[in-house]
Amino acid sequence: MRVETILTCFDGSSAGEEQLRSAIHAAHWFDAELSVASVAYLPDTGPEAARVSDPETSRRVAVREAMDRARMVFGRLEAERVRGTAFPFVTTRKAMTGQFDCLSHFADVTVRPGSFGPSEDGSPRFGDACFIDPAVLQGRRRGPDAGSRRH
């Protein structure tokens, strides 16, 4: 199966920079389109979370930060001659993994944080990012109704 779409996220951190760089290399390698969720975090909510004095202001700041980050990433994709897009993605740190997992069902390959050496789940590595995509390994495209199994 040909890899057509790659998904990653970028939160502006140095680890996020390494992940974005790996995703750009992967997009070149596979000649694929790259989608980048440009992440900004809202304060976590719930009984254990710190109280936010003005949640609406926090939301506006996070949206502006995500939009600015998306513009920066989009410019970088153009400069690196990578087909793709960047979009703002506002979430809490607590909800990030679950929400990003939902997006990953629509990509052929997902570039996630990782480290060098063999992965615990057997996923192949590319640079300092971990590719997790059963569909590519099984030779079928994933969708919202396709079964998911980690390798």
Automatic annotation (TrEMBL):
InterPro entries attached to this UniProt entry: Rossmann-like_a/b/a_fold (IPR014729)
Domain of life: Bacteria
Protein name, UniProt field: Universal stress protein
Organism of derivation: Histidinibacterium aquaticum
Taxonomic lineage: Bacteria, Pseudomonadati, Pseudomonadota, Alphaproteobacteria, Rhodobacterales
